[in-house]
Amino acid sequence: MGKGTAVALVILALCPDAARAHQDEIGTLIIQHAYAEPAVLGGETLVRLAIENNGASVRQFIRLHSDAAEASQIEVRVAPGRFVPIGSMAVLPGEVLDLEETARVRLLRLRRPLAAGGSLEACLDFADGREKRIQVTVGKFELIN
Question: pTM to 2 decimals?
Fold first, then answer.
C-alpha cells in the first residue's frame, strides 16, 4: 500500500461523513469523487470520477449528462494528450473505472458558468437502463489540502 493510499484510508476512517460526501452507490456500483473543472458559459468542461463495480457482472457506462450542458461525450486517451470520443465504457466486476487519466467525460456548450466551489447535478446512464444522479463538485477533489 502506498503512502497516499494509507493517508486516504486514515482520513476516511476518521471522517466517515467526508467519505460519504464523495461517493454514491447504485446497486453494486459506487460512484466516487466526481468533480468538474471551472468553465465559462458556452464553453466546455471535463468531468472526472471513478466508478467501482462490486458486482459479479460487467456494467456498461454509456453517458453522463447534465442540465448544465447541451451535450456530453465519453473520451478515451489514445496517446499522450490525445483523447477521442467513444460510445461507452465497460466497468468490469471487481474493478474501478477511473475517469481521470485514461478516460474522461466532456460536457459541451455549457448553459451556465461553473465557478470553483460550486456544483452541478449530473446523471450517469448505464446500458441496463439504470441511472444514478450525482452531485459534481466544481474544482479538483483532494483528500488532503
Answer: 0.75
